[in-house]
Each structure stands twice: as C-alpha cells, then as structure tokens.
C-alpha cells in the first residue's frame, strides 16, 4: 500500500509542483525538479523517513521493490544519509495501524506532508440518491503557507483523490 500511495502522491506532485517546494533557511524557497517522497517508518527507538527517489517516474513494481529495500535498511540501521535526507515531500501512513485520522507534523525545510488514515467501509449516496458501501480513506496535508497556499493544496488533493480512485492510472 505504501508504494501505491507514494506513486499516487508523486503523480499528483508532478501536476502540482508548488506542493513539492522547499524552504531550507526560512527565507529562500526553491521548486524541486525531482519528486522524492519520504515515507515515515517506525523503527526501534524512533522514526526515520526513507526516500523514494523520483517516485513519479518509477513504475509501481520498481517503487515497491525499492520501498522493501529501504524499509529493510531502515530497520537494520543501514540507511545512508542520501536515503533519508533528500525528501521533497513526506507521506505518513498511520492507516496501516488502524488510525483513521491524524495530523502530521511538517518536517523542517519541506513544503508539505500528507497524513493518510485507514481505509474504512462507509455508507455513501451516489448522484441518483442510491446508497452503497464504499471504502473511504481520510487524507490531509500540513503545509508551510509561506510556500504553498491552501488553494494549491486543494487542487493537489483533488488530483491525488482522482488517482487513488482510478488505480489503473498507477500502472501506466
């Protein structure tokens, strides 16, 4: 699931590059040419964020293989600095622990972080008023508003939702 979410985020960031921006010193802002999605991983004694480099460009299979490798290195404390300090956007997924909603804290220097909650069955009505049960996942983004405006985040989240709701696009 992590690779799918990172791929979806990478694809959405490619369409909304301002959300992938950084502010390293509190004064100067930069728009990153690479989309490097850092993903929070719980390890013994803390948390680390291994980075999936060029998450928008790698196919899902390679991304999932890379993720498996990075998690293994993280848990054995074998990550090299470039494997955890080069993120341009962070993804925190507590949904895998059954948490349905939370707020993620923005890492220093990054423009935004996405918090992903658990997918849960929810009763929804379609446009004709018919009810059905669909899985829904709550997602929110914390951002540095000196870099990213709320309207930009809304557009990014709309794109992310479309990608996640149409997973066929993740395999292209």
From TrEMBL:
SUPFAM superfamilies reported in the protein's UniProt record: CoA-dependent acyltransferases (SSF52777)
BP-aspect Gene Ontology terms: pyruvate decarboxylation to acetyl-CoA
Domain of life: Eukaryota
Domain 2-oxoacid dehydrogenase acyltransferase catalytic: 2-171
Pfam families: 2-oxoacid_dh
GO cellular component: chloroplast envelope; chloroplast thylakoid; pyruvate dehydrogenase complex
InterPro entries, alphabetized: 2-oxoacid_DH_actylTfrase, CAT-like_dom_sf, E2/Pdx1
GO-annotated molecular function: dihydrolipoyllysine-residue acetyltransferase activity
Protein name: 2-oxoacid dehydrogenase acyltransferase catalytic domain-containing protein
Species annotation: Brassica cretica (Mustard)
């Amino acid at each position: 699931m992590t690779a799918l979410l990172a791929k979806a985020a990478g694809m959405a960031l490619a369409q909304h590059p301002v959300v992938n921006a950084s502010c390293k010193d509190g004064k100067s802002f930069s728009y990153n040419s690479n989309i490097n999605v850092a993903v929070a991983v719980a390890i013994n004694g803390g948390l680390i964020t291994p980075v999936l480099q060029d998450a928008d460009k790698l196919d899902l299979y390679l991304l999932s293989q890379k993720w498996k490798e990075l998690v293994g290195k993280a848990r054995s404390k074998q990550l090299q600095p470039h494997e955890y300090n080069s993120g341009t956007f962070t993804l925190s997924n507590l949904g895998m622990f059954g948490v349905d909603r939370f707020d993620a804290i923005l890492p220093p220097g990054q423009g935004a972080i996405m918090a992903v909650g658990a997918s849960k069955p929810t009763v929804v009505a379609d446009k004709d008023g018919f009810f059905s049960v669909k899985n829904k996942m709550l997602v929110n983004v914390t951002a540095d508003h000196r870099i990213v405006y709320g309207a930009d985040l809304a557009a990014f989240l709309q794109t992310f939702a479309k990608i996640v709701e149409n997973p066929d696009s993740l395999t292209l």
